[in-house]
Design brief:
- The chain has one domain: Rossmann fold.
- Helix content is about 40%, strand content about 20%.
- It is built from 7 helices and 9 strands, in the order βαβββαββαβαβααβα.
- The strands form 2 sheets. It has a 5-stranded parallel beta sheet with strand order 2-7-1-8-9, with helices on both faces. It has a 4-stranded mixed beta sheet with strand order 4-3-6-5.
- A hairpin with a 2-residue loop joins strand 5 and strand 6 (about 75-80).
- The radius of gyration is 17 Å and the shape is globular.
- About 25% of the residues are buried.
Length: about 200
C-alpha cells in the first residue's frame, strides 16, 4: 500500500518551516522531501540539508530529464521537488510531506490527485508583513517581490483540501497533525487494516 503525499503551502513568513519542524519531530512516520533551488543559501542553510542548491543550468537539465515532481520559477529563482526520492518512499508505504508554493501544489494535485493539500494562512496581512520584515533573511528587493505576491497566494486557498490559520503556533501544529491523523483513518485509504490482527 502506497504512503500518503501531503503538501504544505502558504506565503513567505507564514511559518511553514517552524510548523514542519514541530510536526516532523513528533511524526517519525513522516518524511520531509527537500526541494531543489537555484537561489543562493540564506544564513546557515546547508546544501543537501536545507535544499539541493543547483545552478540554473543544472536545474534546467533536471527539467529536461523529467527529474521533478513539480517545479516553478518564483521571485526570479527556480524551485522544484526531486521526483524519484518521493516516489520511492511512497511506494515503500511511507508518508511524505512537501513544502511547495501554489504553482507546485497545483502541478502535484493534477498529476497525483490523491495528494492532500494543506494551506497555511496568516492571521492577518499586517501580521504576515511584520513577520516577513522581522525575519531579516532577504534583501529589500526580495521582500518587496514576496509582498507583491501575497494576494495571489492567498487567493489560491480554495484549491486546497484544508486550511490552517497560524495565529498560535501550538494550535496550528496540532491542526496539521490532526489532518494527517484524519487522512490515515479514512476508510477509503485502507490504513486502518494495518491495525487488525492477522
Amino acid at each position: 500500500m502506497d504512503g500518503l503525499l501531503y503538501v504544505l503551502s502558504g506565503p513567505s513568513g507564514v511559518g511553514k518551516n517552524t510548523i514542519l519542524s514541530e510536526v516532523l519531530a513528533k511524526r517519525k512516520d513522516l518524511t520531509y522531501s527537500i526541494s531543489a533551488t537555484t537561489r543562493p543559501p540564506r544564513g546557515q542553510e546547508i546544501d543537501v540539508v536545507n535544499y539541493y542548491f543547483l545552478s540554473k543550468e543544472q536545474f534546467l537539465a533536471e527539467i529536461e530529464n523529467d527529474g521533478f515532481l513539480e517545479w516553478a520559477e518564483i521571485y526570479g529563482y527556480y524551485y522544484g521537488t526531486p521526483k524519484q526520492m518521493v516516489l520511492d518512499r511512497l511506494q515503500k508505504g511511507e508518508h511524505v510531506i512537501l513544502d511547495v508554493d501554489i504553482q507546485g501544489a497545483a502541478q502535484i494535485k493534477k498529476n497525483y490527485p490523491n495528494a492532500i493539500l494543506i494551506f497555511l494562512y496568516p492571521p492577518s496581512i499586517e501580521e504576515l508583513k511584520r513577520r516577513l520584515l522581522e525575519r531579516k533573511t532577504d534583501d529589500q528587493a526580495s521582500i518587496e517581490k514576496r509582498l507583491a505576491y501575497i494576494d495571489q497566494e492567498l487567493a489560491a486557498v480554495s484549491r486546497y483540501d484544508y486550511v490552517v490559520v497560524n495565529d498560535r503556533l501550538d494550535e496550528a501544529c496540532q491542526r496539521v497533525e490532526s489532518i494527517i491523523n484524519a487522512e490515515e483513518v479514512r476508510v477509503t485509504r485502507g490504513y486502518w487494516k494495518r491495525l487488525l490482527c492477522p
